[in-house]
Amino acid sequence: MSGGAPPPSLAELQELERRYAIPTYARAPVQFVRGSGCSLWDSEGNEYLDFLAGISVLNVGHCHPRVVDAIREQVGTLTHATNLYYTAQAMQLSARLSESSLGGKVFLCNSGAEANEAAIKLARRARPGGRLVVCEGGFHGRTYGALSATPQESKQAPFAPLVPGFVVVPPDPAALDAAVTEDTAAVLLEPIQGETGIHILSDALLGSAREACDRAGAALIFDEIQTGMGRTGSLWAYEQTGVVPDALTSAKALGGGLPIGALVTGERLADVLRPGDHGSTFAGGPVACAAALVALEICSEPVLLERVRELGERLAAGLAELPYAAAVRGRGLMLAIDTIDGVQAPELARRALLEQRLVVNATGPATIRFEPPLIVTENQVDEALGRLQSLA
């Protein structure tokens, strides 16, 4: 595609996929060509209301003008320099991430899985050979270390043997406490488990993890890849729990739509990793960091965070009234419904897309996830609920 040529048709793209793309995705039959705010447009000119935000990537919305301006300015100035040298954008983003959270130091990378790989290495560097305790229902990525921390048989089994030294516990405070011993390097948890259907880990569980890690000298690491950047109504989800981790990981919405991730430590773990211990060619590139600096500023705005809490309550209340909703759970604008018996969530999500032009996501056979951009309006929440009611 060049110049003013029209985009390839959907049929042409499907043929290219069939011939050339490794089939790891089950794509819906829609080709998106443009986005703005909470809206997407397909190749036929149809407008869609986006209540998935690229799976919590576009918290600031599609093509936010301030993010676009930052990218345009930076991409015309410097696109890459490697981490052998300084760039203002990487150092400024590191400072901003530290100051907004745990006050330690930052390793920049390119994705959430990479951030969790860095966190695993951090824990093992601090306690060589130590085990990592993870929770049933967690998801931390698909690279080998992150996959080994993701206790889901369907994802792990085809790729065994995995990285050893991971201990899986149910989401129970006593079970977690018993699993943490003097040879535990870290406990790695999502404050709200996203990919398995928006399950909030209780404050009691998180508190038990904190106490157990303090007792054993282990690190408590929160995976905030999906929960962070304002998604739950505070910049970081841990701020609403009363439990402060020793490190956290971030990605998804951090880049305002561009790929970037980060491991952020508290002061205790700030100097554990040493020169040569870890690295990445593209990590902390100036273009992604320029976008992230703007996205982080937008997602930190108190007025926006208050609106996330308010509109999250409005959306949750409306979801509870859907005739096919058996349960609603979540926090802020990170919500899910379980469907009643006989209603298949994947088919419902497909109908929402194709019949109502509403973008949502099924995380399993009976769960639909809702994660609109945080800039969503009251009218757009009501419009989405109306479209969902029309599916009944």
End-to-end separation in angstroms reads 40 Å
Outline: globular
- Estimate the strand proportion: 15-25%
| CATH level 3 topology of the largest domain | Aspartate Aminotransferase, domain 2
CATH-level-4 superfamily name of the largest domain: Type I PLP-dependent aspartate aminotransferase-like (Major domain)
**Largest beta-sheet characterization:** 7 strands, mixed
Helix content: 25-40%
Tally of discrete structural domains: 2
Poorly predicted tracts of residues: none
| Gyration radius, in Å | 21 Å
Order of H and E elements: HEEEHHHEHEHHEHEEEHEEEHHEEHEEEH
Mean pLDDT: 97
What CATH architecture label of the largest domain applies?
3-Layer(aba) Sandwich
How are the strands ordered across the major sheet?
4-12-11-10-7-5-6
Instruction: Look at the helices and sheets and give the structural class.
Output: alpha/beta
Give the number of DSSP strands.
17
**CATH classification class of the largest domain:** Alpha Beta
Number of helices: 13
Describe the structure.
- With 392 residues, the chain is an alpha/beta fold.
- It folds into 2 domains: 130 residues, Aspartate Aminotransferase, domain 1 (Alpha-Beta Complex), CATH 3.90.1150; 233 residues, Aspartate Aminotransferase, domain 2 (3-Layer(aba) Sandwich), CATH 3.40.640.10.
- Helices cover 36% and strands 20% of the residues.
- The chain is built from 13 helices and 17 strands.
- A 7-stranded mixed beta sheet has the order 4-12-11-10-7-5-6, sandwiched between helices.
- Strand 8 and strand 9 form a beta hairpin.
- The longest helix has 19 residues.
